[in-house]
Amino acid sequence: MLELQKSQLDTITGAFYRILRGEKTAPIPLPSDLPENEFTQLVTYINRFIKEYNEFAEFMYSLSRGDLEYPPPPGKLRVLQSFKSLQSSLRHLTWKTQQIAAGDFTQRVDFMGDFSTAFNSMTQQLEQAFVDLERANHELADKNQQITDSIRYAQRIQQAILPTPEAWHQAFDKQAFVIYLPQSIVSGDFYWLAHAQEAILVAAVDCTGHGVSGAFLSMIGHTLLNKIVLEDQILDPAQILEHLHSGVRTALQQETGDTRDGMDVCLCRIDADRQHATFAGANRPLYYVSQQQFQEIKGDRKSIGGIQKEAQRTFTNHDVVLAPGDTLYLSSDGLADQPDPNGKKLGSKQLKTLLSEVAPLPIAEQERCIRAHLQAHQQNEPQRDDIMLLGLRI
User: Which of 117, 284, 306, 347 is the most buried (most CB within 10 A)?
Assistant: First the structure.
């Protein structure tokens, strides 16, 4: 019968105590001169157990961290076999999850009991969610296409109200250019041309906003300008702006509401003799180059439409004496406000310098240089606003 000394029993007890505490346990040392007996056999089996336990504990630790590729240790412990089976199931489950993530919703799990039921239910719900999402995306794409088609049709209508290239070139003997770049499909900027009593009236109008909202305002502005000038025969630029302001406020019911929508306008009347022009501006200046000298006439610091605090909104006429070769420039604020990739705007100062430099060039060359300068400044930066610049050589 095996008889153990107290020290030997303490060694064995200590080893199991550390195992029960979850500690990594070292094998029980056996002196080399210890005779082969039942005690050494017992310790040998205990050390074998400790080795398998430590390997199993390391395996479980790796498994708990999600390392499914950690090689399972050798051994025949029943609990080890169970966890080796669990590892294999989890690896298979991971593969199936990857297939589902790739869009294969036919994958099902037929092991792991209640988990399989929950997993398969989740897969079916995901499949239905993707079907619903795809249907919604198709519906959204159809709606978006319908809206885009409607806006493109609105673009055709807006283009129809602009002066035709033939009318534009005929009015200025082909000595004019138009740079007209909507930020979206339709624009809040528009330019306008009219002949009345042998004079030519031309305007660059910048409506509040851009896109659809600005385009609606542009239609109102165009209609009102035609009525004021062509029907009512009001040809004085300042009076035209005053009537335009009143018409916009009436059309948008701004007398009783609090909408601030409106427009900024640069308006010129060029007399039949081409020796005299009259300018009136609503928050927009007139640039012109005469005798190789760059000039700027500031418009009134008030807009068309919006809140009116004064009893009556009036505008100021500015007379300009013209000579052959002089060039007038009418614009919205989009060109000066366009940023570069670093967020720096082109700016009014740089725009004035640019116009001064290109003014001596033929009118078509002016347009080419201005477009090239804008592209070099803007690079790949998205367009911030509608851009419009009109150049008229006398």
Answer: 284
